Amino acid sequence: MQIHEKLNDFENANKYLKEIDIIKDKIRKQDTENIYLKYQIEKNENDQKLLKENIANLRAKNKIQIYLITSLSVLFLFLVFFFFLIRNKIKNERQIKNKLFIQNKGLTELSKKLEIKNANLDSLNQRNFAASLKIEQQNMEVEWQNDEIIKINKELIEREKENKKTIKLLEESEANLKTLFEKSPLGIFTTTTDGSITEVNNTTLKLLGLPPEEATKQINVLKYKPLADTGYNKHFMNVLKTGKSLKIEVRYKPNLGQNVYFSNYIVPLKNKIGEIYKIYNILEDITEQKRNEQKIISQKEKFELLA
After folding, report:
1. What is the pLDDT of residue 30?
2. Contact, 245 vs 266, CB < 8 A?
3. Where is the domain boundary, 127, 159, 182?
């Protein structure tokens, strides 16, 4: 029993020892963990120190960087300001140069215009001088012309007196010519260049068997059939074309009565510039002469037949 108890005690002691060993192991593990933890704590403290040092270094670096950035920013702003200042200065200088160039150009053009104006003024002065000389010459000519006009007026007064005398003589002569025209044994009539009768005497009216003077003046010789049948129109146009006088002999058959013969002198009347403005016709009755010539011819033929 005692032994059994002892065995039990021994077993209990073993168990207790085992438990003690287990507790020792746990204590050892705990110590090991504590040592590790202490190491970790020390490590963390060292890390925190390093971190603090790094932070301090970073802060110092950041301060330096901020200072550098601030300095560089200020420098950059100064450079930008200086750049814009120089740029504005250059721009202002260019604008001033452009203005000066434009002003110089304007002054050059103005000087050219002034030169042209001066040249024009010189030319005008020369013209004025020439005009004044010309005016003086004209004045001298006018004075001379006035003297001449006075002389001419005197001559005109004398001529007017002579013209009055001449007109009086012409009026007398015209009256004589009119009397001669009306009482002439020759037939006389005048026409325009288109054949209209303007003047006619009584001998012509009788010779051509025409109506009274006023009615005859309505006749156009180029359209009057008895004259046209004699070939008068051709001779009339030939005188107009050549401007030379022409003599023709005509066998004329009036509207009423027997045939008559007459010689016709067709004379063109010209103005001062040589243009024909009127045709003068002079008619000479040669009816008896033609009849005598026919009698002589018929007697000659009879004599030749008898011979």
Report:
1. 77
2. yes
3. 182
Could you tell me if 208 and 175 lie in one domain?
Answer: no
Q: Measured between alpha carbons, how far is 199 from 192 in angstroms, rounded to an integer?
A: 10
* Range name among 21-35, 228-242, 286-300 with the lowest pLDDT average: 21-35
Confidence at residue 167, expressed as pLDDT on a 0 to 100 scale: 46
Range of the domain at 158: 148-182
d(Cα 143, Cα 137) in Å, to the nearest integer?
10
Sign of CA dihedral 208, 209, 214, 215: negative
* Edge-to-edge strand ranges of the sheet holding 187-191: 197-200, 187-191, 276-285, 260-270, 246-252
Q: Which helix (H) or strand (E) holds 253?
A: none
End-to-end CA distance of the chain: 247
Contact between residue 200 and residue 283 where contact means Cβ atoms under 8 Å apart: no
The phi-psi region of residue 266 (left if phi > 0; otherwise alpha if psi is between -120 and 50; otherwise beta) is beta
Distance CA 161, CA 155 (A): 10
Structural domain includes residue 25: no
pLDDT tens figures, 107-135: 777 778 878 877 877 777 788 778 777 77
Are 152 and 225 in the same domain?
no
Distance between CA atoms of 274 and 244, rounded to whole angstroms?
Answer: 12
Show which of 136, 162, 182 is a domain's final residue. Answer: 182
Q: DSSP 3-state assignment of 184? A: coil
Place of tokens 């330096």: 64
- pLDDT at site 307: 65
| pLDDT value for 166 | 46
Q: State the pairing for strand pair 260-270/276-285.
A: antiparallel
Prediction pTM value: 0.43
Secondary structure of residue 95 in the 3-state scheme: helix
| Contact (CB, 8 A) for 228 and 217 | no
In this predicted structure, the answer to whether residue 174 has a pLDDT above a threshold of 60 is no
